[in-house]
Every structure is written in C-alpha cells, then in structure tokens.
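Folds abound. Consider this:
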Amino acid sequence: MPASDREALAALTAEIVACRRCPRLVEWRERVARDKVARFRQETYWGRPLPGFGDPDARILFLGLAPAAHGGNRTGRVFTGDASGDFLWAALHAVGLADRPVSRRADDGLTLTDAYVAAAVRCAPPANKPTVEERDTCAPFLARELALLANVRVVVALGAFGWDAGLRAMAARGHSAQPKPRFGHGAEARIGPYTLVGSYHPSQQNVYTGRLTRSMFDAVLGRTIVLASG
C-alpha cells in the first residue's frame, strides 16, 4: 500500500472510532461498556466504534455484521473476545492467514497476512440488529475502506447482512451485478474486480447447531485462497 493510502486508512480509522452519528447505537454501546457483565466486571470496555483490522495489502476482506456487545465492544477489535472470533482466528491460522489460533485481547499481537477483517456496522447494536438507517449511515465507511484496500480481490461475507453490505460497497465503487446475487454458504458472484463469496456467520448459535461446521468454513477458505491467487 502506498504511504498516502496508509495515511488515508489511518485517518479513516480515527474517523470511525470518533463517530457518534447514530444516537441509539451510541447510547447502547456506552451503556454496555458502563454496566458490563459480571464475568468482565474488572475490565475496561472499549465502548466505541470498531475500525477494520489486518493487512493493508490484503487480497482477502472478511466482512461481518457488527461488533458483539461483550466481544469487540469490550476489547476494541473486531471478532476479538467472543466465540465467533475464537472460531474465525483458529480457521484463519490453519491456512496461514493469521499468526496464532487464539486472540482474546486487542493488544495480544495478532497479525494477519493477506487478510483484513471489518464489520458492516461499526458499533454493537441492541439484540445484534442495526436498523436500516444505522446500516446506511455506516455504509460509507466500508466503501471508503474497500477503496483504500487496493489489493482486495475477494470479499468473504460472513452472513447475509455482510453479503448485502459487500454488494453496496462495491456498487458505491461503480461495480454492480444484475440480477442481485443471492446469498448462500459457498455462493460466489463476480462483480467488477471482486469476487464476493458467502459463508454462514461463525456465530455461536450457527456453530452450536451445526449450521456452520469447521469443515464447511475450511472449504470456503480454501476456495477463497484459490480465487485470491488467481
């Protein structure tokens, strides 16, 4: 990544962290950070929006829904400190995209290679359900992030919400597909310079019920790496 783009990405990160545009999300994320839960009572919560994280030269972008109230909203890094992150980092480590299989804190030194991880909505929403207005208010952040991540060729949508957010970010960059590609686990859509790949979200519920298994996710990762290398 050119130095100018690195500076722009750093500036975008600072802008995301300082955002207070959605009153409902601001109130919720800060209330959760203040009230906490018993098991994290002694910890200081982040309680702010989460920027993306990873390799700025990445060819692969993993896109989730939003931070977990007591995961990223606590630790200050997307997919860190919750069951979804435990699943994701272990899988990425197994294929060489992460330097360790476990990450529970934002300051533990986790490094990604050729991968970048972001959320469609940057604040933890009540019941994990942002409103349409909140979704649309946050959308420009992802479009700008994608523009700065110039080497990204594959966007892996972790869930239908991430799939739709990926489509909107690509459309904002002038790349769209008609008819609209449908989300599904293992679905693929070629859109301009990108390939959008679908995966069920590695939520605790999906993993617990077997809707998403490790072998299913590994298959998506294997295909993603092939696409990114092509």
About this structure: The chain has a mean pLDDT of 96. The chain is about 40% helix and 10% strand. Residues 3-229 form a domain with the Uracil-DNA Glycosylase, subunit E fold (CATH 3.40.470.10). Helices lie at 3-17, 23-35, 72-75, 83-94, 132-148, 160-172, 204-209, 214-229.
